[in-house]
Amino acid sequence: MLLYLLVLIIMYNLLNLKRILVRMDIFMNTHSGPKALAEYILNQSKNKANKKAIVLLFQGILAGIYISIGAIGSLKVAATVTSPGLGNFLGALVFPIGIIAIILMQAELFTSDCMVMLSVYSGRTKIRKIVKILFLIIFSNLLGAIFVAFLTKTSGIFGQAVTDLVIEKAVHKVNMPIGELFTSSILCNIIVCTGVCLAYSCKEELAKIAALWLAIVVFVLSGTEHVVANMYYLFIGLFTGANIGGLDIFYNLAVSGVGNFIGGGIVVTGINYILSYKER
Questions:
Q1: Secondary structure (DSSP) of 161-203
Q2: Rounded Cα–Cα distance for residues 56 and 46 (Å)
Q3: pLDDT per residue over 168-219, tens digit each?
Q4: Contacts of 212 (CB under 8 A, 6+ apart)
Q5: Structural contact between residues 113 and 48, judged by C-beta atoms closer than 8 angstroms
Q6: Are 240 and 169 in contact (CB under 8 A)?
Q7: Angle at 222 between CA 135 and CA 153, to 5 degrees
Q8: How far is CA 217 from CA 14, 57, 192, 206, in A?
Q9: Which of 272, 258, 221, 273 is nearest to 110 (CA)?
Q10: Which pTM does this prediction carry?
Q11: What does the alpha-carbon distance between residue 102 and residue 62 come to, in Å, rounded to a whole number?
Q12: How many CB atoms are located within 10 Å of the residue 55 CB?
């Protein structure tokens, strides 16, 4: 009953927020849609291609840290609420802080950066250049996630309930059948990149946060596989005693990484490119 009440309160406030934002002309209106989105992503792709490798490296590390911070909050909340359904829901409300920080602080996250494939489809950047950028970003995301997992373990901030949840989650992830893991990862980045596209289509920071927050809550509730979030979950699981090894972690991250790339870099980006191309 409490869960339904919370949902109703949140939806009521979000509807009121949308009305206020529309009156304030915060949404892009005539500047939204596939064509405007494509131009924005192409501009972002150009900026990434012009960045020095060291800048991308540190921005990627920051993104791994931000995602891990969201995961810490989500785990703490989910583990301390006795009702599993309510715990998962409240944990999902906390998790988006990581991706919101990435968008606002302009860090580099592999899953959303897969959309730079648009510059390949449009012929503005060679695929070799984009592949190098994405490999550097996913590697730096991994460094950030491992760093926070190490700090989490050594600081002792997780009690027994959270540790049990972490171990359960890590073991489940490395034992997922490859087909299920792969398709779950594709769906995951379709959801995440849809949220990022909504954020890109907003003028003001408040609108970006509202749009992205809703999409990321849906992603967390869906239980789909996000490669960067999994970096944190698997390494904190390893550090806290989960019965998993390096090959198990590699299996999950490799499959989920490819699936995320397809969901964001091919499905979402490819369809938006076709739609924007047909408008011309």
A1: HHHHHHHHHHHHHHTS-HHHHHHHHHHHHHHHHHHHHHHHTBS
A2: 13
A3: 999 999 999 999 999 999 999 999 999 998 888 887 888 888 989 999 999 9
A4: 96, 99, 100, 103, 195, 196, 198, 199
A5: yes
A6: no
A7: 60
A8: 13, 27, 10, 17
A9: 258
A10: 0.86
A11: 8
A12: 12
